[in-house]
Amino acid sequence: MVIGGGISGLAAAHRLAGRAAAVDLPLEVTLLEASERLGGWIRTESFAGRPVDFGPDSLLVRMPWARELAREVGMDDELVAPGEGGAFLLSRGKLRPLPAGILAGLPGGPLPFVRSGLLGPLGLLRAGLDLILPANAPAGDESIGHLIRRRLGRQTLERVIDPLLGGVHAGRCDDLSLAATAPQIAAAARADRSLLRGLRKTAPPVPAAGAPRAPVFMAPRGGMQPFAEAIIRAIRDAGVKVRTGARVDAIEPGDNATLTLRLASGGVIEADGVILAVPAATAAGLIAPHAVTAASTLGALAYASVAHTALAYDPSSLPAELPAGTGFLVPRPERRLMTACTFLDRKWPQRRAVAEEQGTGDDLAHAVVIKCSTGRIDDARFERLTDEDLVNALHRELAEILGLTAPPIASRVVRVSGGLPQYAPGHPERIAAATTEVAEALPALSLAGAAYRGASVPLCIRDGRAAADAQLIRLGLTAARDEIARS
Ligand SMILES: Cc1cc2nc3c(=O)[nH]c(=O)nc-3n(C[C@H](O)[C@H](O)[C@H](O)COP(=O)(O)OP(=O)(O)OC[C@H]3O[C@@H](n4cnc5c(N)ncnc54)[C@H](O)[C@@H]3O)c2cc1C
């Protein structure tokens, strides 16, 4: 039984059905989703004649899990890399290109820093001190902000790292766990006394001269929803029973290590094994009667809310050209409402063609679409604005930054309430303890999803699959275990 039809639950159901089929095991898999739609935060809508993602919009393909699943559901050929040109940072009112060779959110050495113009002379000097400062790492986890301030200084943190790494989570680097949120930087910090040298040591190998650079991010050419739909088709084909509008309100231990699920509709379901792939607060409520400390750990996990606003502009209202990149990030010191801006047609140039193929293009197909993000864990100003006021405020900011001369001809605001978990320092240990407590109290239940071991889509897929494997092994399905060992 899988509870939650977001990407974690879908990946778990797909893995359960796939493993069972591979070893000819008659396993009955049901997926229960509270809402009427599957996919969780994955949400692609047609806007201005093209598919626009209002939830996740790209997959980090250096991690294998999303790509593996895409291959298994026949979507691998659909994955495309974003357009060329890189991204910009708004710095002291000006768009400046992100340093070339940026590695894991940090430039690989002092030179890209110097050339980028992102830091003032004092900031540069302070960042350079990293090369001579003695080792000063604390024992155990710390915040990303703590490490960066210590090694590279405040300017680097506020103007480069926080918009990059904090921005991904709509969080504050000063409050985000280094180990859980930026493990690649944690590894670099361990690799050398100097963080900059550590980053160079741990950077992925640079391809030989002339060799094509593998893309870091990719996305299905029609947006993320078709990916979710392909998984849903695959699990239905594999015999998984999918029930929407099926909210689980209580989980109780049953006889013979089974679990009894009580639905809001009044239904009762017995399950041999359960994967609970719902947001932390819901999981906390469901496990609270059985695992008190774990429930309070999950209940305490903060989530940030954001809004994505798509704006369609007539090309005549743009300056001669938008900057030649895929968009820009906005650091906190710029004091803007906007946290990031995507030039949609530059980032995903295939989208107009997809709309034409699908016959969903409309009379705004000629427009230029710009998508703006607002909201951070400590900035909820957008929540006090109506959609209309938000659109106006964002347009005013875009007009100042990009020189737009006329308001948008269409807009859409999508608000994401509490979508982005904030892993505070010590998160991995707290989650490990919670997982152990739950495994002891409810051995037939595994926790999976964005609250635990990484919130990105690839890491949610890994988590859902790992939870499925754990339940198959627990059920003593030897054939399945052998299959897991072989893969
Ligand atoms: C705005 C935004 C942008 C993002 N951008 C990216 C990106 O570009 N790349 C990337 O890799 N990641 C991105 N992420 C992160 C990633 O999309 C999410 O972490 C991931 O989709 C979460 O999936 P999930 O299945 O764990 O949870 P969810 O998507 O939250 O799914 C949980 C599901 O459980 C259901 N549910 C809840 N309670 C119950 C119940 N009692 N009974 C039954 N069902 C229940 C919910 O209705 C929901 O469908 C983004 C996230 C957000 C919010």
Relevant terms:
487 residues; alpha+beta; FAD/NAD(P)-binding domain; protoporphyrinogen ix oxidase, domain 3; Polyamine Oxidase, Chain A, domain 2; seven-stranded mixed beta sheet; five-stranded parallel beta sheet; 18 helices; 22 strands; 38% helix; 20% strand; globular; binds flavin-adenine dinucleotide
* Through-space gap between termini: 23 Å
Can you tell me the CATH class of the largest domain? Alpha Beta
The portion of residues forming beta strands comes to 15-25%
Largest sheet: 7 strands, mixed
CATH architecture of the largest domain: 3-Layer(bba) Sandwich
Using only CA atoms, what is the Rg? Answer: 23 Å
**Estimated helix fraction:** 25-40%
**CATH topology title of the largest domain:** FAD/NAD(P)-binding domain
Class of secondary structure makeup = alpha+beta
Q: In which order are the strands of the major sheet placed? A: 8-7-18-19-20-17-21
State the low-pLDDT regions, or none.
none
Overview of the structural elements:
The chain is α+β, with helices and mostly antiparallel strands and 487 residues long. 38% of the residues lie in helices and 20% in strands. The mean pLDDT is 91. A seven-stranded mixed sheet has the order 8-7-18-19-20-17-21. The protein has a five-stranded parallel sheet with strand order 12-2-1-16-22. Flavin-adenine dinucleotide (FAD) binds at residues 3-9, 32-35, 40-42, 55-59, 247-248, 277-279, 282, 306, 416, 419-420, 449-450, 455-457, 460. The site of flavin-adenine dinucleotide (FAD) has 35 residues, from helix 1, strand 21 and helix 17.
